[in-house]
Amino acid sequence: MVDYSVVKCLYNSNSKYNISVIDFEERLDRICRLRIRGETKNISFLNIDAPTEEKEEETKDIFYEELEMAIDNIPKEDILIVIGDANAKIGSEKIYGEITGEITPQQGQRNKNGLRLIDLAIESDMKIMSTHFERKDVHTQRHLDNTREKHRA
């Protein structure tokens, strides 16, 4: 479940940051939208926490239907940024390279949630940007072992 407390605090506060917040909306308990005023365009952020692969298909269907509706309700002139946890492995098939990028940490593995995310990106004319950039190798066991050795010395 997504924790919206920081976003709500920002939206409800009387601070200088509240001036740029246009709107905040929660959809289900897994999707929220924050719309802020930009210098030339407004920016809509959708923060998501998709159901895991093990959840029932009906639960995932409801989530993706709500996400599609949330995307459809974003004004077309806004910049749209979807952030959060999609609980998806998108794989590294070249056929989806334009959508997913060439750099994927899963090295060929894709799950059903990954396919759902790719389909959504195609239907919504979006790209999955987290796989367009190379990442540091900090979450591997080898890296953790090397870090432990450095701290022991």
UniProtKB/TrEMBL annotation:
Domain of life: Eukaryota
InterPro entries, per database record: Endo/exonu/phosph_ase_sf (IPR036691), Swc5/CFDP1/2 (IPR027124)
Protein name: Craniofacial development protein 2-like
